[in-house]
């Protein structure tokens, strides 16, 4: 049990009032304990230090293990326990107990590179009207990392239209927001477990919140089987439902309603693409071919063209190639510090090349 924790709250009731202010409140919803220590290490390794860290135990079934992982940090964190409400409910609890005007969200399996807070807070200091700033990230599994989202696929305009159509993908673990803007938008909606962040960004954009993207890669978004976002097909289905409900929740123009229909069509094609991958990995080439044909309406890349051709001409080759790709993506566990060093080296090389 944590006896010396800075704040110990049960059933979301603070045991004393805190008056000291900090620049940013870092909110970490925690359900699984496996990567929590690594996540906190990445926070306490930041070059920016004027922050508080709020860890919300969201009804974890492994609370004993989670609290054991927190022991080395207990004098540096606010720790809150509550019944399970999902990531949205855990973040809302953290927001209600936060002391800062700015909020930084970090899931308990993701990581920040050391200059994340320094760079993001600088945007708010430079522009008092800014409501949200997000950075790009590396998506990684084991020792394999990829840039996420791809810079070439992102719009320079960040507004309701580009967020709804996913031309701007705001990754929650690389986002700093103004607390009042989140409160004014209605906080996270607990109905949308797994896609609650997308819903909040849409509502904030609809209210005209000013948003900025930092194109530097400052986060590490971990892909693993126990994460909420692992079931992409389920998340995609929820996203479709979410888009369908927006006209009843927001006052939209006819142009915006038409945009939502187009966005939902895209999401349906994305779902077909995801299902196609699952069928292919499972060796079901016939169902994979059907799904990929549906996805081709929006995902007409050269890679998908070649996959469709292989499925039609020689299905076993397509299946073998997919399984090889899956194995390369998931194999090879590596300590995140070593991966961080490698990625920082990549960024430093990129910066040097750009200034040369």
Please describe the structure with a list of short key phrases separated by commas or semicolons:
globular, Spore Coat Polysaccharide Biosynthesis Protein SpsA, Chain A, 356 residues, 13 helices, 2 domains, ten-stranded mixed sheet, single chain, disordered C terminus, 17% strand, alpha/beta
Written overview of the protein:
This protein is α/β, with parallel strands linked by helices and 356 residues long. It has two domains: 7-230, Spore Coat Polysaccharide Biosynthesis Protein SpsA, Chain A, CATH 3.90.550.10; 238-330, no CATH class. It contains 13 helices and ten strands. The chain has helices spanning 36-44, 63-70, 86-96, 116-126, 160-164, 179-185, 196-206, 232-249, 254-281, 285-295, 302-313, 315-330, 336-355; strands at residues 7-10, 24-30, 51-58, 78-82, 102-105, 111-112, 132-141, 144-148, 175-178, 211-222. Strands 1, 2, 3, 4, 5, 6, 7, 8, 9 and 10 form a ten-stranded mixed sheet that branches. Helix 9 (254-281) packs antiparallel against helix 10 (285-295), helix 10 (285-295) packs antiparallel against helix 11 and helix 11 crosses helix 12. It is globular and about 65 Å long. The N and C termini lie far apart (54 Å).
